[in-house]
Amino acid sequence: MVGKENLRAEDFNLCFEKLMMLAGSGNGGQKGKGLQLERGVITEWKDIPMELLLQILSLLDDKAVIKASGVCRGWRDSICLGLTRLSLSWCSKDMNSLVLSLAPKFTKLQTLILRQDKPQLEDNAVETIADFCHDLQILDLSKSFKLSDCSLYALALGCPNLVKLNISGCSAFSDSALAYLASFCRKLKILNLCGCVKAASDTALQAIGNYCNQLQCLNLGWCENVGDVGVMSLAVGCPDLRILDLCGCVQITDDSVIALANRCPHLRSLGLYYCQNITDRAMYSLAQSKMNSRMWGSVKSRNDEDGLRTLNISQCTALTPSAVQAVCDSSPALHTCSGRHSLITSGCLNLTSVHCACAVQAHRTANSFLHAAH
User: Which is one Pfam family of this protein (predicted)?
Assistant: First the structure.
């Protein structure tokens, strides 16, 4: 209830009085003597230890936490020093002003979610974040259409510990600014560039492959400037890549997929929707690489989780059933059966005969049952 109200200091004081009454009635009926703790007696809000205060605030929503920081000086100091996660996605207006006022106070933030339904953030807000929040590891700036390269340059210099960055839909960023960011933020593991049509180019991907060697998840959906040179650079430089979305990257060919198959043994999810230059050659390379990894891998690691778990080849109309079936056979976690679709083939009417391992097993079981009945 507290987290959903537009709280004032008086609201917190009233809650505190009720808390003290409950504490007093549970302490031998000695009302008014406060809540006994090892450190002393709590008689006012300011007496609450920082650790306990942060546990209480963890039960509230982010709007209430911001209100709580204005209750008193002690609370403000505790929250500013102890708060590590904050989301302002609920803010439908004046988010930019709110960030400008909060970033200099909440300097220990490690996670900051600034997802927007309509663009509000401007470069000065991101620059302020970079100036004060040097511990930031997770940042979501999706749909920040107003931001320019200045924001990426600031983050590169001020937030080198970024592990997860979402700038999907930030269509104004350039590839040179993204390459600059990659050269400083070398700990990146998750990067969402979906819709970053200017930033996601072969030049930027070469920089990411060169500097961000820990990268595990990359979304390049609908980045039409991405080609084989960029993807091949990723494959060489990011061997731990596990999730890659290339949906709508219409320039890539089999060479990209072959490089990924050969260089990224941990690849588990691959999106190739509308990549119509992809042919059977790419599918056979995926199948062969997964078969090789299962053959040479330890016995302990051989299970249904080996190989691809998700593959989207919708609208890849050049593919034939035999090539796609080879991928299915090499990756038991790919499913075509009802309720478990992880091999997505929408628009490929010639692939209706492709079946996963469990579907084949079900067919064999049914045939055995019929033979036994006869």
Answer: F-box-like
